[in-house]
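Can you give me the bound-state structure? Components:
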Amino acid sequence: MDYRPEVISKMSALYAAGSGSFLKDSPELFNRYRESAFEDFKRLGIPDRKNEAYKYTNLETFLNYQYQEYYSPLPADFREAEKFHCEVEDLDVWNMVLLNGFFPNGEKGLVMLPGGIWVGSMKFAVKQFPALMEKHYNKYVENANDGLVPLNTALATDGLFIYAPKNTVYTKPVQIVNLLHSDKDIFVQDRNLVVVEDGAQLSLLVCDHALSPQHFLTNTVTEVYVGRNSRFDIIRVQNQHNNSGKMTHTYIHQERDSYASSNNITLHGGLVRNATWHHLGGENAETHSYGLFLADKHQHIANFVKVDHVAPNCNSTQLFKGVLDDNASGAFNGRIMVHKEAQGTNAYQSNNNIILSENARMDTKPQLEIFADDVKCSHGATVGQIDADALFYLRSRGIDAREARLMLMFGFAHEVIQNIPIEALRDRIDNLVHQRLRGELSRCASCAIQCN
Amino acid sequence: MKDNFLLQIKELKASIDNKEILKGLNLEVGYGEIHAIMGPNGSGKSTLANVLTGRDIATVTHGSVTFEGHNLLEMSPEERAREGIFLSFQYPIEIPGVSMVNFMKTAVNEQRKYHGLEPLSASDFLKLMREKKELVEIDSALTNRSVNEGFSGGEKKKNEIFQMAMLEPRLALLDETDSGLDIDALRIVANGVNKIRRPDTSVIVITHYQRLLDHIIPDFVHVMYDGRIVKSAGPELALELEERGYDWIRKEADVSEESWTTDQK
Amino acid sequence: MENDQDKILNDVTSGEYKFGFVTDIESDSIPAGLNEDVIRLISSKKKEPEWLLEFRLKSYRHWLTMKMPTWANLRIPEINYKDIIFYSAPKQKIAPSSLSDVDPELIRTFDKLGIPLEEQKHLTGVAVDAVMDSISVKTTFRETLAEMGIIFCSFSEAVKEHPSLVQKYLASVVPYTDNFFATLNSAVFSDGSFCYIPKGVRCPMELSTYFRINASNTGQFERTLLIADEEAYVSYLEGCTAPMRDENQLHAAVVEIVAECGAEVKYSTVQNWYPGDKDGKGGILNFVTKRGICKGDDSKISWTQVETGSAITWKYPSCILRGNNSTGEFYSVAVTNNHQQADTGTKMIHIGKNTKSTILSKGISAGFGQNSYRGLVKVLSKAEGARNFSQCDSLLLGDKCGAHTFPYIEVDNPSAIVEHEATTSRIGEDQIFYCNQRGISTEDAIGLIVNGYAREVINKLPMEFAVEAQKLLQISLEGSVG
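Here's the bound-state model for the whole set.
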């Protein structure tokens, strides 16, 4: 039976009941879009497998669940979150913790880092930078066929705001730790905006953790504006437990001569779907989309990527890899779209997967759509096992079969990790992946909180 | 108890996809000896290397192989390697994402563990790498990359010899190590092998041509044909082969089987 | 240089369609439109047994519940089924028992198309079934083949003479409910070829069916059924042309292939239906369901297609690899020029153990043409040791066309190895310059390069037709580069 009408009516009831409170608490800018966004959600519904973008991803187990809370965290939870520290040797970052999509420390809603970069709450940003928010908020999302995006626009009340004004450069990465912690099962909607103005540079590290064993579902929408001649890197490390579902929708809009990269490292999570749009809107821009997942048990990990070559002479690459064990399933859905005007495009896409067990399953759909002729585009996809020749080579040097297999899987994964632009972070993620492959808990050694 | 031979192969038969490739091969290699196995394409030379190192492409159907008195065929590929068998591959495979350093460190320490030794410390290991690199004249930058990834043909072969230096085998199998090498690279590779060799290290050189044997001088030369060793002699045999090709061997070897048919004509 | 190439592109892409003439022959046509009475009429005209009429009616009733598929990357003009004539046969007084009974106008038509119906004139080693509009005109070499137990005849004759075989295999690969167009075909199919190769027989000659649409406002709905019994072998080729007409004409065919243990079937298509004029007016709407099943162990089905015609092509010749160690192959060259659109590819369904499939697709787009590859490789959980390799290349000539690749890969077995590669590019200026420098004109250079690009596929065609296909490719494309 189709579970979706019931979820939609539940959402409608929630929206109706909650609208009083969150309309009151939210800035006008957010409220302005809610009504029509909710209508869009009702029209588009919850994507099912008839939707090409969700052909291999079934949201039912996570969406068809009685979540108890949808909007606001309870004040008591903040205390737990404040205990969280993520101090990593050699990794010099500026760090901020979000709890269930909200800022624990309400008063310091927006701070300026050395160099002039602003980081903080969306709500506060509307007050401080009204024109900027007006210009960018809800401008880059594509609502055409995914109801979850307008659902976020309709329900989200806060999220992360980062603003790198013209020519500002912050040398340290900004680290955002997204914690999920509650004694209730909750459905979180967070809405983020990153604006990197002309000539600015910013790298952002987002770590997702679930601290309590409850059921969580997160529906995240992030809009990113990358101005002329600027650079933006985002690295996500997703490490949540198997009762937790995560859906991200990231829209990266690039102007001319800009550079952007996105790297999604998924170590754990019951259901994770990362959708990333790269919009190359100005000439001579460059964009890279990377992803790696390691899935076991009944986990389902999906990556959806769309690279839109709208302007001429842009370059793009996509590299996504997955390792699947037990009953895990994975999906890759990547598309390169080269518009008529985008002559001189170079676009590459690659998706490689290793299946380790009888019951694991991988579906992949690498696609090209090309309307310009002066282009170089290619894509490749493989689903297979660890290369037998490589395995023998290692064993012939005295490395035992299990260890050799691990090394090869690690090497397979490292090809994605090596593209992380921050060396200390690269090493740390290598380490996390190592632990994960060995079946150990992928937890940073210095972390005080017992996740998993 | 030390066996008389390091390696002893008796009546070895092996098949690939039910096709018999090795058809009753006998070979004895003593300590510190250099043996060359020569022969035309398809005579089974590479299959022999596969069987000795435990590659499961070929199935052994008959015969025995002992290494220092132990049954080699019962061992896994990694056990054989730790016992001291080293294969320099004809086509070394590229392994993207696996760094040379990590690869070699793992191999060296696994071997040490097997022999009851403590693992090398990071600094000792790097020191060892440095020494061996110098010994085999391998470009330092190569060891900073992934295993064989993007290496030229010559670099791959040098990297094999470097690994041999690191692992100090008892028995080195050089499978067509000279193929695709220019004169300089050939000299470097051959010198490397000679420098690495300890007095009791044995070497089996599998090759088509004489030229590698100018640098690594064999004690014995065997000619392999149709899955068997059909002729064994001293180093002068290699020169004879170089001069006369393999046709005469082919005729000599075939005579016993096909003379009857010939008579019928 | 750029301008020269554009000019040459224009010159050659406006080349005329060679087969656009109309044969002036009286037809026996039924009124346009479709209802149960029309289906009964078709069935009675063909003097069909009751079970076949039932099959048609069952299909028709199901078709009424279906909607036209919209998922393909195509802009399809509205098809009004009320205006289509579902049965049209060139009028002949009596069923032709020998060539002298065939209307001379028909013989002339097929001569003009290069398909002589007289056996002595024919390319040696090729038996032909010639189909015009809804019926089969003549099948050559029937007697020669019959001596070996090979049945090669029109579908209608097969229904009369080999009803049990037809009943056993009809719709066994493409069920009547399969898809909108296959279901329509099941309701109204007119004629087509039937072929049965008995156990252990290697068919000594190429079998071929030549399809010709002649009458206006008619749809063509042929049905082909090809059965290779254990250890049998056959190579089969179909060709098709149609007159130039301003309105679109619908062609919705079904081809079913069954390969038993150890059997091998090679099925080649040179599709040259009228593509419409250079402004996109008219042309055949080609919606075809082709599917083969490798039913027995060690069987093999190989599809080769050269698609140069039709305003719209929608077809996915597929293989169900059910037998262990069975093999499926798909080799395709698809050309879209002017306003042609193609959405074509294959499905390889791996069910048996150690099944192998190879896909090689070469798309060429010119003018305003839109060319999509759509393919599915599916490895079921029991398909231990399945192996697939796919290569899908696209070549763009000019900046107004498009090339699209939509592969679907679904793997449910850990021992499977599936690889897909695709590239899109245009002819390199350095390649053309290289040819120029050797004294080859730009136009010839492009011809050479395109042919080189398509060679791997063309080489899979039976020799007699490879040359034909190569010429066709040149005619539909020569020299186009932007």
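A couple of observations. DSSP finds eleven helices and 23 strands in chain C. The first helix of chain C runs from residue 2 to 13.
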